[in-house]
Write a structure and sequence with these properties.
Immunoglobulin-like; 38% strand; alpha+beta; four-stranded antiparallel sheet; 18% helix; five-stranded antiparallel sheet; 154 residues; 2 helices; disordered N terminus
């Protein structure tokens, strides 16, 4: 009986050592950053790895979803991101426009995403920390933006 108890205790103490490496290997794999500075302009933050260092500069919730102005601390870029977009657009092109401007550099870009429900993000603009970055979204095609976001540099 004593041999069986020792064998059982030995297997119990070994269990955490067997489980721990499996949990450690489940860590997310990050993409190496493939751009910097103005070389990131009009590029995808996920494909370039810039989204791995992203923080949220501004947030606005609307009936269509939660819109974020994201900032990469490594790439020094901004982009507009919407999570849980409800879907739909009354724009002539049927798209969701995600617009971004860097007022200090006087540059802007627009990304025209599908208006399907889900998560969408636009392309980036280089906008170093102190610059004024403004993001916007349009799904109605009117004269104004339905969502406007701004960085702390504005």
């Amino acid at each position: 009986m004593r041999k069986a108890t020792i064998a059982l205790l030995s297997s119990i103490t070994l269990l955490p050592a067997v489980v721990a490496p499996a949990a450690a290997s489940a860590a997310p794999v990050s993409v190496a950053v493939t751009c910097s500075g103005t070389g990131c302009d009009n590029r995808d933050p996920a494909a370039t790895g810039c989204d791995d260092s992203a923080v949220t500069a501004d947030t606005q919730t609307s009936p269509k979803g939660t819109f974020l102005l994201r900032y990469s601390t490594v790439c020094r870029t901004n982009w507009v991101h919407v999570s849980s977009y409800a879907g739909g657009s009354t724009r002539n092109d049927g798209k969701l426009e995600l617009h971004l401007e860097d007022h200090d550099r006087r540059v802007s870009n627009s990304f025209f995403a599908a208006s399907s429900a889900g998560t969408h993000w636009g392309n980036m603009l280089y906008s170093p920390g102190g610059n004024c970055a403004v993001g916007a979204a349009d799904w109605n095609g009117g004269t104004g933006w339905e969502v406007v976001l701004s960085s702390s540099g504005c």
